[in-house]
Amino acid sequence: MQDSVVLRKIIHIDMDAFYASVEQLDNPELLNKAIAVGGSEERGVVAAASYEARKFGVRSAMSSVIAKRNCPHLIFVKPRFERYREVSNQIREIFLEYTDLVEPLSLDEAYLDVTINKKGNPSATLIAKEIRQKIKEKTGLNASAGISINKFIAKVASDINKPNGQKTVNPEEVEEFLEKLEIRKFHGVGKVTAEKMYQLGIFKGADLKLKTEEFLTENFGKSGPYYYQVVRGNHSSEVKPNRIRKSLGAERTFDTNISSEIFMLERLENIAEEIERRLKKNKVAGKTITLKIKYSDFTLHTRSKTIPYYISSKKLIQDIARELLFQEKMKESVRLLGITLSNLNTADIQGKTEEKEIAVQLRFEF
């Protein structure tokens, strides 16, 4: 790790099996049972799985059919996103008691920069413990945390002692921690990349650290310099409380495949209505509409159109989605339809805010 790097005290909070835990909290009959939020026994995709289900290999983004095959006693529960948002907002309020530098990644996880915090507490480790305790008291849910000098290490560390635990990687421990870390646990290294790294003899951070930046760039393109830096503990990305949203969308997986264009138009109307609601809530509009179609044979097609002005109304979104739907003749029955609005006016609305970089000593108490 370079001596000139600016160190911060970053906490990554990650709720444990959030959607599934909320369902178990609200319905005691589901406690200690294998549940999957989303999908159904016949079709669909698992959005989240309880830890009881994970023991049987059930994971998010897994086909419901495969999940049921892995865990025959699996219980499917319909997602309630409004309820998840409600709980997420309660958790966010707790974060803001400590710092305004909160960067939400989703409803169930966020980065917090507590280098300078509202409590005047010099220990990020104790702050993380307090936050997890308050979340438990206020919501009844468990959270895990990772604490370190930057977002990358904090994110990796939050997964070490899950569920309901935390891991601090102090400045002097960073080098050894990363060298011993299995490459598949590096944030940003997916399954395909991990397999490629294995073929190149890279199994742990120590192996990755031996490779030159040129070698990594040659084999992993633009990600090469990123891997070169993070394995050395260098990750300068700041916690950004006002992340600019780049797109907004919704999709539906149907219980039975549909081939009637009339039914498809009905579904698109419902999806457009949901997008309009989200756009109004976030006070944004967009110029590019993308239609997503997944056929019964699981092939995925997307079609997009960009217009010269911002839109946010259901009617306009629906009209363009309809135009995209009839661009080509349907080849198979359809199992999923989705609409995404991108090229948003978020930059115009939010503007660019300057963030003051906090310079701290190379070593300090975590």
UniProtKB/TrEMBL annotation:
GO (cellular component) term, any one: cytosol
GO biological process: one example: error-prone translesion synthesis
Cited InterPro entries: DNA/RNA_pol_sf (IPR043502), DNA_pol_Y-fam_lit_finger_sf (IPR036775), DNA_pol_Y-fam_little_finger (IPR017961), DNA_polymerase-Y (IPR050116), DNApol_IV (IPR022880), PolY_HhH_motif (IPR024728), Rev_trsase/Diguanyl_cyclase (IPR043128), UmuC (IPR001126)
UniProt catalytic activity: DNA(n) + a 2'-deoxyribonucleoside 5'-triphosphate = DNA(n+1) + diphosphate
EC number(s) on file: 2.7.7.7
Pfam family, one: IMS_C
Cofactor note: Binds 2 magnesium ions per subunit.
Family: Belongs to the DNA polymerase type-Y family.
Identification of the protein by name: DNA polymerase IV
Species this chain originates from: Antarcticibacterium arcticum
